[in-house]
Amino acid sequence: MDATVKPLRIPPEMSVYAEKHEIFDLIQTLVRNLVIDKPEDPIQYLIRLLKRESVEVPRVVILGPPASGKTTVAKKLCERIGAVHITSSSILKDDTELTRAIRQYTEEGQEIPQDLWIKLIEERLSKADCVRRGWMLEAIPKSREEALCLQASGITPEHVVMLQGRDDVLTERSLGKRIDPVTGDVYHLTFMWPENAEVAQRLERPDCIMAEEEIACQLQAYYREVQGLQSTYRNCLKIIDADQPHVDVFAQALSYVLSRHHSDAPHTPRILLFGPPGCGKSLQASLLAQKYSLVDICCGELLKAVAADESSMGELIKPFLESGRRVPDNMVLKILTERLSRLDCTTHGWVLHGFPRDVEQAKRLQESNFLPSRVFFLEMSDSVALERLTLRSTDPVTGERNTCTPVHSFSYPISQSCGSNV
Length: 422
Prior knowledge:
This protein has 20 helices and 14 strands.
């Protein structure tokens, strides 16, 4: 590589545009599909991929111990998001050469070779309905080894939902299970009885209900594998307590499945801190900057630094600072946007406090395309704010500010907008 070539400077507006239109996620999806499928003609492959109604389709795995409600949740999720519901039994229903070979193992009571099983799953997920609508694997995979083999074959879920519950609750659910012979839906005598009286009358006790000893053995077998599965899918895993009303379990699972993961996308953090005087904006900004390697920008300190550097802009704002008057918004915005445009801010991200102070300044900041990706408002009561400001002192050597106030006064709620935790 030519050492004289300068690195490409991407303007900050580009990152805002890319995040707004999910460009980073689109590129990530396209690259992932290229690496997995390895097409002979990458350009035509990407063109066909982009012509689909949705480049990203649901890829969900739902796991859990016996009687945790996997089937019920999986069916409802598939009805809601339109994905294809895949189970071990449904895969074996297809009449193909591979399924016929595998049935011989099951009929003879032998364990299915893992390479054949993975190949069968891969064959099923490559069909048109799964490619077009997405898929949901129920109780697949059953072990870490199987999960790694699926990943090696290019089968990687975007969301993994794992249900969990106490052994006594799971045992009671298993013993009280009832099946609708018409729809195949699963109900329970205590936990989930159908509202429709006609459905309730035709429920049947399954022939395969196990004794408590068999249930205990199945639970032990599941627990031997659960840690490995959690480790394999830790970056896309949601654990949900199944010992609650099934509508709540479904609501949590649906909320997670509908969410998008942006952790791997190269988003640059842009954080804005609001709050009354004395709420601790400077301290929190310093902690955030230290933990996430961000640029800490205090608007007041920035103006003082510009006034001291004897530049033309510094000479213009110096009289305002010396007289205690407010620096005009257009000057403040010009200084601030110039600082936010520097390479350290565009590369590492920034945390800003002290600006904007009113709605007009906020509108001007938005028009400049320096949009925060996270906004935090530090709330506190007037009495606590007055106590902090009254007892505030400054270290003349370091310039750090301290407040001699009781520890409980530093506890305040944080209201947040523009997203989740940093």
